[in-house]
Amino acid sequence: MTPNKTLSILTPTLPEHRFLTDPDKAVAYLEELYATSTKFLIDAFNRVVSGEKTSARYRAFYPEIRFVTSRYDQIDSRLSYGHVSEPGSYASTVTRPDLFRHYLRQQISLLMQNHGVPVSIGPSMTPIPLHFAMAGRGDVSLPENGELSLSLRDMFDVPDLATTNDDIVNGGRAQNEDGTRPLALFTAQRIDYSLARLAHYTATDPEHFQNHILFTNYQFYVDEFEAFAREQLRDPDSGYTSFVAPGNFKLTDPDGAIPAQPRLPQMPTYHLKRPRGA
């Protein structure tokens, strides 16, 4: 019988949590932590693909927001977000802070305003699955034949569908494993799963989605939307800067051609873009 070998775990250096009172600095630190973690995983994957031999597992962690309040603050009862209703310790993991920058800044700012306490930003103990760290990245090396001679599950964390669920938003979980209360309705891994589904079903990356979405069952309306998009790109005062088609093809020339896709996704999606998703 082959003895069971316990692999050592390699991680990036884990910095201390920082207590911050500036929402912009809090979000910037979330972005820094997330970028460090994903770079660590991608660099390790590229080395493995290139043939590096190792007996270790590679692991990096989502950043998290922690927030503690010890009193019942007098909050406007009409507010539906930006505050907590009871004293306690709250925490939530965060993914893609670059994508959610405006939202995170708004939420952190409101927490600080309504409770008068800082937030704590630092690495969580929740691993980032390799698949999610690699999503939409152009700096990932792939083997020439498209196959690996090893199991990724042996060397990296992979998505765990058993814990990627809606327990918090459905009211089935009131506490995190460490005893803190959830500060958000969805965990970072649950959000990553949804972002991956968006990319899979629409063949466009999540960062292209704008604030308003139109749904249609008819190709005629898609053709009209493309024509409208080209008109807007011709107008220098429209504020629109690009039109994105399935395959992440970005059109900035109103008279440019959109290459035909050999196979359309289940929900082909087109984006007429303004800065900040307006």
Structure description:
The chain has two domains: 8-202, amp nucleosidase, domain 1; 206-277, no CATH class. It has helices at residues 23-49, 101-115, 130-134, 152-155, 188-202, 219-234; strands spanning 8-10, 18-20, 56-58, 61-69, 88-93, 119-127, 181-182, 242-245, 249-251, 271-273. The chain is globular. The longest helix has 27 residues, at 23-49. 24% of the residues are buried. The strands form three sheets. A five-stranded mixed beta sheet has the order 2-6-4-5-7. The chain has 278 residues and is of the alpha+beta class. The model has no long low-confidence stretch (mean pLDDT 90).
What class do helices, strands and sheet pairing give?
alpha+beta
Rg is 22 Å
Q: Any idea what the shape is?
A: globular
As residue ranges, the low-confidence spans are none
What's the helical proportion of residues?
A: 25-40%
In CATH's first tier, which class of the largest domain applies? Alpha Beta
CATH topology (level 3) name of the largest domain: amp nucleosidase, domain 1
**Whole-number mean pLDDT:** 90
Side-by-side strand order of the widest sheet: 2-6-4-5-7
Per CATH, the superfamily of the largest domain is AMP nucleoside phosphorylase, N-terminal domain
What's the story with the biggest beta sheet? 5 strands, mixed
Strand content: 15-25%
Number of strands: 10
N-C termini distance? 62 Å
Q: How many helical stretches? A: 6
Mind telling me which CATH architecture of the largest domain this is? 2-Layer Sandwich
SSE pattern, N- to C-terminal: EEHEEEHEHHEHHEEE
How many independent structural domains? Answer: 2
